[in-house]
């Protein structure tokens, strides 16, 4: 009895710590920025990395949790970006004066942008998610190209020139809060009945069907939600860069998002976020190498994928993203997290050493 | 309980199941036996809505027509399918797998009751509660698949090849549990290649041959039939 209580207390303390960590992290970054240890260039990169993290997490919902392969996350990003940018630039322009009005309308524009992305996700999802297999990958790939071409054609989206003169409304506090909100939303979705259904679909679609899960509905729900969050990320992106053009949302962008997700660790939101943070910043760290940085970047990726096929951080969730029962030893092994595998390797090494000490004579 | 009339399953222009009719009464174990490609699995998939059926087909489960329903609606009616090849959720723990079985159930008390029932039937699963599904042995996975289907709290089970790829002693255990389920009042439609085992526990049997029923009757009678003995029982 006393033991279980102690365990409970420890668990509570842990989640408490991770909630405390969030504001601490925010304050530390702010202090670093104010004292100019973190210059404005890196500050900008950090914000970009956070937005990439949002989109990578949205991709994890559909690729990692539901097991459907989307190749066109940049398409949804562009819908969110263009919609919200057109709203703040063309529609709300006159109403924006004081900071309250402009931020209020900015949030509204972000939400509308995300909702439009979700709606388009819904339109694409209905036909393609009824089918099993790789159709979604093909359709999303096609969609992201179509939408890019459409932005080049429409006069109100600035054609190939794109939209410029967007107000810089995405600030670090807003992006930071958006990341936290998105994490909580995704965590709660995954924890819910529908989320569990999505994981069952990923594991075995036929079995999920025989459990009484409406698989089409569950897949569409998670796809639409994923598109919504990607659209939100796109809106933040437009108001961070202050300029968007169709080429920003090409296939390369979608591939980047996949890269963040798979290098970080597919199947975990926190790994996706960390993957996005690391791999957005890495090319900037390597900038001193000039043109060689892309070679090194690719080399690092290859090494990671060879050594850690489940991603750097594996399927583990960190801090407050972890939910449900405590991971069992089996799950830990299956998740292939960085820390647990490190501990595992040390244990094995120790064991081997002990074995050598005991039976060293016999070996020689 | 289950009344199937003129069941037709087409794969393109090929007839997988060609106009068969059969019925399963409440509390019975009925087995469908036959060689590879006879249409056994196609029949079960049709019953649970996973295969499209012909236009003249009628499948009545407790008086309700199932042919127009989707798989998840059929599960909600109480007809549960344990698909071929176990198909457990690999990265979920045993407990999580069982909870997935209770998907259609929203009442925590019933879920708990069903869970306890599953653990009494399969004490082995209780031992491995926190182990992930993928690391279980073949027999344990099959137990988990059956237990998971029981969690839906349905009235009838469709078992597809529960003996596939298992050691004889493990198969014996699984079949004992099938008999035990019958005693609890469960109705079972069993599809098997292991005709000997299936016939020894079933009440009635149908023999499928290239999509058609070639023989039907009480299991003991079928077992004694010369043709069946030659073709399926190796005697």
TrEMBL record, chain A:
InterPro entries linked: ABC_transp_permease (IPR001851), LivM-like (IPR043428)
UniProt keyword Membrane, yes or no: yes
Cellular location(s): Cell membrane
UniProt keyword Transmembrane present: yes
Topological type in the membrane: Multi-pass membrane protein
Source taxon at top rank: Bacteria
Coiled coil ranges: none
Keywords assigned by UniProt, alphabetized: Cell membrane, Membrane, Transmembrane, Transmembrane helix
One of the record's GO cellular component terms: plasma membrane
Pfam families documented for this protein: BPD_transp_2
GO molecular function: branched-chain amino acid transmembrane transporter activity
Annotated TM spans: 16-35, 41-62, 74-92, 104-123, 135-154, 166-186, 223-244, 259-282, 294-313
Protein name, per record: Branched-chain amino acid ABC transporter permease
Species whose genome carries this gene: Lientehia hominis
From TrEMBL, chain B:
GO MF annotations in UniProt: ATP binding; ATP hydrolysis activity; branched-chain amino acid transmembrane transporter activity
Pfam families named in the record: ABC_tran, BCA_ABC_TP_C
Keyword vocabulary terms for this entry: Amino-acid transport, ATP-binding, Nucleotide-binding, Transport
Record field: transmembrane: none
Keyword Transport carried by entry: yes
Biological process (GO), any one: L-amino acid transport
InterPro entries for the chain: AAA+_ATPase, ABC_branched_ATPase_LivF/BraG, ABC_transporter-like_ATP-bd, ABC_transporter-like_CS, BCA_ABC_TP_C, BCAA_Transport_ATP-bd_LivF, P-loop_NTPase
Top-rank lineage group of the source organism: Bacteria
Residues in ABC transporter domain copies: 2-235
Key word ATP-binding present: yes
Family label: Belongs to the ABC transporter superfamily.
Protein name: ABC transporter ATP-binding protein
Source organism (scientific name): Lientehia hominis
